[in-house]
Amino acid sequence: MASFVLALYADRLAPKAHRAPLSAGNRVIYVRAGDATIRSGGQVAALAGNSAWHGAAGCEVAAGANGAALLRWELAPAGAAPAGEPLLAHGLELADPGGYLMRCDRVDFPPGGIAYTHTHRGPGIRCLLAGGIRVEVNGRTQDVQPGGAWFEAGPDPVRALASGEPTGFARVMILPRSSRGKSSIRYVLPEDQDKPKTQQYQIFCDEPITL
Questions:
Q1: Is residue 89 domain-shared with residue 112, that is, in the same domain?
Q2: Which residues are bridge partners to 180 per DSSP?
Q3: How far apart are CA 211 and CA 193, in angstroms?
Q4: CATH code at 41?
């Protein structure tokens, strides 16, 4: 079993500004606002708001004419030097012989929406983009506001309640490769199985990784 750290960073770049180059490592970069250009391994990706990029090679990031607000998830071996001051970081033990993938998606709720008690097939870090959300897990409650981040282990049953306004968050999860292209969610309570599910999903990246 190998030890890793999944960390979330927030980068804000002024118009046309360049971020210091990032070394090789499994990462996802999500553009929360503005636009950005990412250069990595001879490839160039132009990202608008509400889009994301995954890569493992070193990369350079530049903001567009309106600047850029970025969320950046890094998966690194435990003990590696952090790539900045994280909003949130959490240790992971990864040992699935079938390998893993990094999935970045966005989840949106209508006002008052509920994610009924559920689990996921792997751990991940979420960051609230808009609205408000109450996360209930193992008898603990966390109220999150925009810009706030939280970790979900995967197997722990979670219930989430959106505020009275449209609510959305971006997340990156580390999932078994067998989950590629498939939903990772499992509802725990039989009475919730057939209830209407009001949350909507956008998947940006669902890429196998090498640890």
A1: no
A2: none
A3: 35
A4: 2.60.120.10
* Chain CA centroid to CA 150, Å: 10
CA 11 to chain CA mean position, Å: 15
Tell the residue number behind the tokens 């669902």, with chain if given: 206
The residue range of the domain holding 162 is: 100-209
Partners of residue 109 on adjacent β-strands: 167
Q: Which of 133, 185, 186, 199 is nearest to 161 (CA)?
A: 133
User: How do strand 185-187 and strand 114-120 relate by DSSP bridges?
Assistant: antiparallel
Are residues 111 and 51 located together in one domain of the fold?
A: no
Q: What is the pLDDT along the chain (211 residues), one digit of tens a residue?
A: 579 999 999 999 999 999 999 999 999 999 999 999 999 999 999 999 999 999 999 999 999 999 999 999 999 999 998 989 999 999 999 999 999 999 999 999 999 999 999 999 999 999 999 999 999 998 899 999 999 999 999 999 999 999 999 999 999 999 999 999 999 999 999 999 999 999 999 999 999 999 9
